[in-house]
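Fold this sequence, please.
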Amino acid sequence: MRDFIYDLRRTLTGKFTITMIVLIVLATVGISYAAVSVSSVSSVPPNSEAYVYPAVFKTAYGYNVTDFVANGYGQPVSGLKLDSSLINETASTQMYNISGTTNGHGYFNTTVALTEGNFTTYGYFSSYISGINTTFESSISILKKNESQSGILPNMYSWQSTNNLSVYFIGKVANPSSATISGIEIYYASANGSAMPSGTLYYYVQNTSSISLPIPSKEMLKFGTIGGFYNKVFTLPLNASANEMNVVVELFPPSGGAQPLVMLPSATLYSATSSGALLEAILQVPYEFLIPILGIFSAYFYYGKDKASGVLESIITRPVTKGRIFLSRFLGGAMSFLIALIMAEALSDLVIYRYTGSLLSSSYFFSILGGYLVEAIAFSGLIYIVSQFLKSQGGILGTGIGLFFVMVLFWSDLMAIILYALHVNSAVKSGVIMALALDTISPSTFPSLVIYLRSGFYGSAFGVGSGYPASSVGITLVSVILVGLFWLFIPALASFFLARSRD
């Protein structure tokens, strides 16, 4: 037994094992960091963007212009230069240009005399940006007494005016204290400068594909009565049940009514990024090549190479059997794969947590670990089998590289050719089942099989046809376990008995 433990420890502490573990860990952590860091900086930070809310009221004293600017958190933006114009759409040459800078509260106010022209629209010049990265703005019709209008602004903002020279704006904003739950900003402007009157805010989590708008308040959840402000951000009491769902928000008068004062027709306000789904997606392509290569080369360096060169024969002169050497080398390789994958997952999880705020769930952790561990051990087992028949190092390594090309790089193409030769229609369910069965012949497809099981959905075969529920094409917990056990034990047991039979 001491000789077995010694050889096992030698395998685990060998240069190739250490190199392999370091390679997997560094590659996985590096890929994870690159993916999440790039995606996190691809969009403009909320505090570096501005949304301009225009409001122009035509009164007996002139055109009252009120511009309010808020950043992506709904906070006022001061010192932003605005270049805008009043336009007569029926006489495009009639224009009055305005220029100003927002004050410490995010406002720019001015009045234009009625004698300057009969204007109908208010808009901005594209060159008004100053000192801020990204700004969204929109033109708006000039608001007149006894008229009500509505419209949509960029970034899911909507507005609606009333017939008493006031206008409501409502939209989704980022939450500085949570990356999961977004806020709702409500801004109110009026010709007389008054604060927003009282209103009752309702919301509805849309769990159907379509719905008729506006939604009656009795069918919505009540947030509460609000009012007495010009601009304010609210956070709705949403939880994970609203994850990635559209939310409708409506503000009604205190007395109720069929029509809301303003409505946000659709916005995703709860979005919890799954670190498991992110890591799964990040690893799928690089691991498709890395894991089989490591399984092949590990078996070659710790068994195939020594067997072909006669090193194992010198060890066998001691009281050590070929079967025991096989077990120590094979188990050492399997344990090194396990250690490398656990370390890589754990460190990558910490990297992703820094950007998403969520850790891997146990289901994701074990599905990722199990899928790639089975694949690595399976390819290693295949090389152990090859080593029982081939006598040269070059032959063993060349066969391993050939297996990589056939069972990894060109496997999907090869299976597509077989399906075509058998006249199997992979666009129908029976053809999809056949394609899936052929896929399982290669251990390189096992991680994808685990993903299908976890997600409950099997995608189209070779890019043809539609997807199916996983269970409907035979992907169940039992079938996946059976395939995994086959690749874990059959190549290993076959090579083990072949090695023992030659003692």
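Residues 14 and 186 are 64 Å apart (CA to CA). Residues 2-40+274-500 form one domain.
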